[in-house]
Amino acid sequence: MATLEVQSTSTPDRLLRILIVEDNLADADLYVRNLKRAGFEVIPDIVQAPGEFVEKLSNERYALILCDYRLGGWTGMDALLTLRQLDKDIPFILISGTVGEDLAVEFIKKGAADYVLKDRMARLPLVIRRALEEKSLREARRRFEEELRASEERYRDLVENANDIVYTLDLQGNLTSFNKAGERITGYNRDDILEHSLGEIMQPDQLALMQEMLKRKLAGQKVTAYEIQITAKDSSTVVLEVSSRLIYKDGKPVGVQGIARDVTERKRAEAELRKGEALFRAVVETALDCIISIDHTGKITEFNPAAERTFGSTRDSVLGKDLAETIIPRSLRERHRKGLERYLDAAEGPVLFKRVEFTAMRADGTEFPVELSISPIPQQGQPVFTAYLRDITERKQAEREREMLISELQDALAKVKTLSGLLPICAWCKKVRDDHGYWSQIEVYIEQHSDAAFTHGVCPDCVRRMYPEIR
Question: How far apart are CA 373 and CA 376, in angstroms?
Answer without folding.
Answer: 10
